[in-house]
């Protein structure tokens, strides 16, 4: 018998009598009273910052200014602007100073933002850039992870990620250090609801 | 297969003896104790912010119970969906099979540069040691794991691998291996040095190994949680990504992730969520994605009625941080990949004789059970393992004799009363007899209390008369 069948047989022999599962009623959980206030508070708590912009023009202006000041900037913010192609080689992306990426959902209870692979252009982009800017609209906030997983289809694309704050570690004497392997800063740009 | 060397491990590598070595440094022991208690308090604060916390624990426990009761079907469902996603699925009955599958992938693809993010399963299988014997080096990329790897030590905690070390030791290690300034022990500086060192490893790697936090049967994909982003840096940069998972990592549906991601980080470090919660379903074009599904004793544990629900564990380590024994004895004293209370109920299943000491490394206070996000009755299982180990004749002789003696004394009131008055007499007049650490292990790290003049029984009788 091969490894697979051996394991499945051993599991079948070892498992207890069936325990039916009644699906939990997530709706019994009270949402935060104000999604926007909670979201902003948690983005800050996990080491990020929130930037409120009035419209897409202000966002495109911000990106143009950054690009004009030099440095490798990648714009995947969408919102009417031109989306940059992303090179395939991680080596070429090592010097990315700022990556602007469109998020799709923000979670009020923890400041996490869902990002689809197609928004990244290259899976490694939100991890390899030095500063990450995620763009959302205020109507894209949800209360908690239960609602987030109702809205996000996790297997729609090959890869997707919730990002909450910049990369961090506390592995040396529990001292928090921002910028372990990934971005040293995370800014969430919030545009008004559409 | 060679196991890693635990500091002080020798002929007698019982928890008690290794803990005694750790305890020789009193300042460090106190620091370790207080630091982990601080992490435990952060967990409490995070949990208290959610009125539904206890309900979440119950749901998580119910979902895991249900999953274990139907695990073979969920494994088959997961495999079918993963294959449809273009993932290559491998099965390994034990550690040796797991290691040789990885070796085969490495060999057939001509791989020389490998990075690995945190995976307690690969620690359990002693993968790094095995591959080193084949002349293949694996670079651990979690900062804490890289620190202990450079020091040729195993991790001492499943979430905080280098929690037993002080920053000056990290500084010395980095000075030796990464060429950092001698004496500079600033965590910011040291982390930046590791970032530069590991960035080069990520960029050069051909193959990345990661663990798995949750594997979703319904979608045939898996979730990896990190704060550093090291799993993603490795997995997205390398041509081949191999994820290693125990059979118990399965959850039935994507919507269950909401529950487990809410519980995991809060229980582990008090964070509302890990920085990165990454969902892998299909390889990028031209790349390879592999999953190795490992049993290594888990199906045997599933068949043990009293111990099967230890397989519900999501590896948050809340039971470590709260445990008065773990906090004061350090992770290496458990001489296993998974230390702490949960390790003490998992490891006897892997090798009862080698780990017969672990269920005794507990006060049975029950704090582990109280904080467990999936409601594993850890302290009850510790107690049950003690009975199994005693029945198998694997208990330490000193414990066996002591227990037999105590049960005789406690069963005979007259002898008990005499023993009590004798003990008070000796404590008052001949304390040096009790202050001998080799005759009286209780005296280690403790002071003797004042001996009362009379027993509680005598006092009570006087009050009544």
What would you say this structure looks like, in words?
With 194 residues, chain A is of the alpha/beta class. Chain A has one domain: Rossmann fold, CATH 3.40.50. Helix content of chain A is 28%, strand content 25%. Chain A is built from 7 helices and 11 strands. Chain A has a 5-stranded parallel beta sheet with strand order 1-11-6-3-2, sandwiched between helices. In chain A, strands 7-4-5-8 form a 4-stranded mixed beta sheet. In chain A, strand 2, helix 4 and strand 3 form a beta-alpha-beta unit. The longest helix of chain A has 13 residues. The radius of gyration of chain A is 20 Å and the shape is globular. The relative contact order of chain A is 0.19. Chain B has 465 residues and is of the alpha/beta class. Chain B has 2 domains: 285 residues, Rossmann fold; 53 residues, no CATH class. Chain B is built from 22 helices and 10 strands. A 6-stranded parallel beta sheet of chain B has the order 1-10-7-4-2-3, sandwiched between helices. In chain B, strands 8-5-6-9 form a 4-stranded mixed beta sheet, with helices on both faces. In chain B, strand 5 and strand 6 form a beta hairpin. In chain B, helix 2 runs antiparallel to helix 12. Chain B starts with 14 loop residues before the first helix and ends with a helix. At the A-B interface, helix 1, helix 7, strand 8 and strand 9 of A face helix 2, helix 3, helix 4, strand 1 and helix 8 of B.
């Amino acid at each position: 018998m091969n490894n697979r069948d051996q394991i499945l047989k051993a599991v079948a022999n070892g498992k207890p009598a069936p325990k039916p599962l009644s699906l939990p009623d997530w709706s019994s959980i009270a949402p935060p009273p104000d999604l926007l206030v909670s979201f902003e508070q948690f983005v800050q708590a996990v080491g990020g910052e929130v930037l409120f912009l009035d419209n897409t023009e202000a966002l495109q202006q911000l990106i143009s200014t950054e690009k004009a000041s030099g440095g490798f900037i990648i714009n995947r913010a969408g919102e009417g602007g031109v989306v940059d192609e992303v090179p395939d080689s991680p080596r070429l992306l090592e010097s990315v100073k700022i990556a602007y990426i469109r998020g799709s959902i923000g979670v009020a209870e923890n400041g996490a933002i869902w990002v689809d692979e197609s928004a990244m252009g290259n899976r490694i982009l939100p991890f390899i850039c030095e500063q990450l800017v995620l763009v959302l609209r205020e109507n894209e906030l949800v209360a908690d992870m239960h609602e987030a997983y109702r809205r996000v289809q996790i297997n729609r694309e090959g890869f997707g990620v919730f990002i909450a704050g910049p990369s961090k570690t506390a592995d040396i004497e529990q001292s928090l250090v921002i910028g372990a392997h990934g971005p040293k800063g995370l800014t969430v740009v919030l545009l008004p609801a559409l | 297969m060679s196991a890693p060397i635990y500091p002080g491990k020798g002929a007698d590598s019982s928890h008690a003896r290794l803990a005694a070595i750790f305890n020789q440094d009193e300042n460090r022991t106190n620091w370790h104790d207080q630091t982990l208690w601080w992490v435990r308090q952060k967990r409490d604060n995070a949990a208290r912010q959610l009125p539904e916390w206890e309900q979440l624990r119950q749901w998580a426990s119910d979902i895991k119970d249900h999953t274990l009761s139907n695990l073979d079907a969920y494994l088959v469902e997961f495999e079918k969906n993963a294959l449809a996603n273009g993932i290559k699925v491998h099965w390994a009955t034990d550690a040796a099979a797991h290691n040789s599958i990885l070796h085969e992938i490495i060999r057939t693809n001509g791989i020389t540069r490998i990075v690995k993010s945190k995976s307690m399963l690969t620690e359990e299988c002693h993968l790094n040691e095995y591959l080193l014997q084949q002349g293949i080096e694996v670079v651990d990329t979690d900062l804490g794991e890289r620190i202990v790897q450079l020091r040729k030590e195993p991790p001492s905690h499943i979430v905080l691998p280098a929690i037993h070390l002080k920053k000056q030791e990290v500084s010395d290690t980095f000075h030796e291996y990464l060429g950092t300034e001698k004496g500079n022990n600033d965590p910011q500086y040291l982390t930046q040095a590791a970032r530069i060192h590991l960035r080069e490893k990520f960029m050069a790697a051909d193959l990345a190994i990661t663990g798995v936090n949750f594997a979703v049967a319904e979608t045939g994909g898996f979730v990896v949680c990190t704060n550093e982003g090291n799993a993603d840096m490795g997995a997205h940069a390398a041509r081949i990504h191999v994820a290693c998972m125990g059979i118990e990592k399965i959850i039935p549906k994507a919507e269950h992730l909401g529950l487990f991601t809410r519980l995991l980080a809060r229980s582990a470090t008090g964070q509302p969520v890990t920085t990165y919660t990454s969902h892998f379903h299909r390889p990028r074009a031209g790349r390879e994605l592999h999953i190795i599904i490992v049993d290594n004793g888990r199906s045997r544990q599933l068949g043990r009625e009293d111990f099967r629900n230890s397989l519900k564990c999501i590896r948050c380590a809340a039971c470590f941080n709260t445990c008065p024994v773990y906090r004061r004895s350090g992770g290496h004293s458990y001489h296993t990949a998974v230390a702490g209370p949960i390790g003490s109920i998992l490891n006897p299943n892997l090798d009862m004789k080698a780990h017969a000491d672990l269920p005794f490394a507990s006060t049975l206070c029950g704090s582990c059970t109280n904080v467990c996000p999936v409601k594993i009755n850890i302290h009850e299982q510790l107690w049950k393992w003690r009975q199994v180990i005693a029945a198998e004749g694997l208990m330490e002789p000193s414990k066996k004799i002591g227990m037999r003696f105590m049960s005789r004394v406690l069963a005979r009131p007259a002898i008990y009363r005499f023993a009590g008055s004798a003990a008070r007499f000796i404590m008052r007049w001949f304390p040096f007899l009790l202050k001998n650490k080799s005759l009286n292990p209780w005296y280690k790290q403790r002071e003797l209390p004042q001996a009362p003049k009379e027993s509680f029984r005598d006092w009570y009788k006087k009050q009544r008369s």
